[in-house]
Amino acid sequence: MMNRVQLRLHNAALKLFAETGSQHLNVSELAKEAGVVRGTVYNNLTDPEHLFDQVAIRVVEEMNERIHKRLDGIEDPAEQFGITLRAPLQRIMDEPVWGRFLVQFAISNAELNSFWRGVPTTAMLRGIEQGRFELEPAEVEAFLTQAAGATFALMILVLNGKKTWRDAGEELVFWQLRALGLPTEEARGIARKELPSHR
Predict the structure, then answer these.
(1) Cα separations (Å) of 98 from 20, 22, 57, 60, 128?
(2) Does residue 10 form part of some domain?
(3) What span is annotated as the signal peptide, if there is one (predicted)?
């Protein structure tokens, strides 16, 4: 559990990573962005050299925590999968820096990619097991890779004001569920459901 200063430093680092596109930060830049002195950085971060990895791990942990809260009481794997795709698109409306960080690094960073091996993979495998999805278990990784790419591409459109998160999320989920074999009206209905709260 991070203290307030550590959280402040992580948030400042996330912003700088997103803005610069670099995975390396100068301690002085970080201190300035966080509004602290250099000594505070060293006193609160065990390894500033590996701060990017720490921030990436925190981003994935937060994503998983929020998704799990949203999925509470939802049993249908198609709905679960839809929520995992739409929730990040909703979040970037409130936290665009978070979205820019993902767009910059999520496709190429193994830690950030680990999100897709969690809840989305579980929902996919359950959907296959229950006969909801027309996919073989061996095809899940490739399917999720293209779903991730589509998600990040739509994030860019949302961040640039070309689409609302709601429209982007509905379109994304609709086409992904159709690709998994769900009938048109059912896929559209799931894509338009209100997102459950993450609180």
Answers:
(1) 13, 15, 13, 11, 32
(2) yes
(3) none
